[in-house]
Amino acid sequence: MAGVMVLLPSCGESAHSDHNNNSAHSAEAHAEEEADVHEGHNHEPGSVEAVKEELNENQVLVTSQQMKSVNITTGQPSLEKVSEVVKVFGNIALPPASEASVSPFIGGVVTDIRVIEGDQVQKGEVLAYIEHPDVLALQQDYLKAVNQDKYLEQEYNRQSRLLRDSVNAARTFQRIEADYNNNRAQLQSLKQRLEMLNISAEGVSPENMSSRYPLFAPVSGYVNAVMANSGVYVPAEKEVFHVADYRQVHLDLKVYEKDLPLIEEGQQLTFRPANNSGVGVMRGTVLKKSKRFDTESRTALVHAEITERNDNLLPGMAVVAYIQNGDEAVWALPEEAIVAAEGKHFVFRVVEEPHEDEHALESHVGHEHAEETGHDHGETHDHEEEGEHAEYVIFERIEVMTGVSQAGMTEVVLDDEHLQKASFAVNNAEALMSEMKKGGAGGHQGHNH
């Protein structure tokens, strides 16, 4: 019995010791698991992910690449007279001086075409060459006239002296004078014809005569039509290229008879393509009303200048425009800037302008230094490409009161002067709301343990 009594405490002591050891190992394992869990949330200070963790529940961070991919743009509120507007239809047009047809002065074979449709060209740029024997003959005639001019000028001066000295008859002098003047007229005519072929008359000599001449772009712009190919013969005055300067596009709007008295020069308007293909609201100003009335459609043409436009506007595109003729101007934002949720209306204000995170700049400098010294920083470079370090913008969601919606613009109540001067997301703000919901409150979703 004594032996048993001695052994029991020993067993208990051993069991207690094993339990303590197991508890210690369990605590260590739990600590390691906690460390592993938190290890993924240790972001570089100043990086995009680190900044996201500091955002509050009404803020959202998007990279410039994200903004570009979903077409998020920023802008400021504007004073608009949206209470009364005249809705009109029209199209994008070019003034006659902003487009030009390129055709040969002398017909010939097209060679060396240097452009295709869609190419941007500058005024005076060579588009192609036209080759024909008549071009060579014209230069030959010019050189003959130049040589004849030198001879006739000398003979004219000689006969003039003889006439003064009464040695020669006046009829002889008059004949030489007529030949001299006729040749000078012929010389000027040939010179002008060479210039119409874009050939410099002063540069023509027996050594450099050519059977071809260049076709130049008469205006700066884009080539929107190429109507010939190399090797084909084109007659004189046949259009070979068409060049247009799209920077000068304007609006040609058809206003119905009943609305004409409401339209005045200087009125502001908003417009967008008729197909409404995701393009934001653009702006313009009424320039003038045409004095011609179309009796069939019962409309008159109104020309409007485009003051804010999209680079994708092309002549001929149909548009819908809203000419503002109300009296009171109110603060307004494009309809795409306002998001309705939970019975409220929200806009997204820019609270931090686009900039690159600090760590990205350091990594970029380090990468350049590695290239100079020959060291490999491939891991850092790959990390940047993954998108953690990139240029970003921070938006803040703000609840607003809205009013009248017209012409793609919605009235918003902005009593705070700072908000009136602030920048907002003016296109596809729905994407910001989705990004905010996806990231949770301030982007902390997944960080609660």
Automatic annotation (TrEMBL):
GO MF annotations, alphabetized: transmembrane transporter activity
Disordered: annotated span: 8-47, 357-386
Key words of the record: Coiled coil, Transport
Coiled-coil spans in chain: 173-200
Pfam families, sorted: BSH_CzcB
InterPro entries, per database record: BSH_CzcB-like (IPR058647), MFP_Cation_Efflux (IPR051909), RND_pump_MFP (IPR006143)
TM annotation in the entry: none
GO terms for cellular component: cell envelope; membrane
Domain of life: Bacteria
Positions with biased composition (Basic and acidic residues): 27-47
Annotated ranges, domain CzcB-like barrel-sandwich hybrid: 100-245
GO biological process, one term: plasma membrane copper ion transport
Family: Belongs to the membrane fusion protein (MFP) (TC 8.A.1) family.
PANTHER family from the UniProt entry: CATION EFFLUX SYSTEM PROTEIN CUSB (PTHR30097), SLR6042 PROTEIN (PTHR30097:SF4)
Protein name from the UniProt record: Cobalt-zinc-cadmium efflux system membrane fusion protein
Species annotation: Marinilabilia salmonicolor
Lineage: Bacteria, Pseudomonadati, Bacteroidota, Bacteroidia, Marinilabiliales
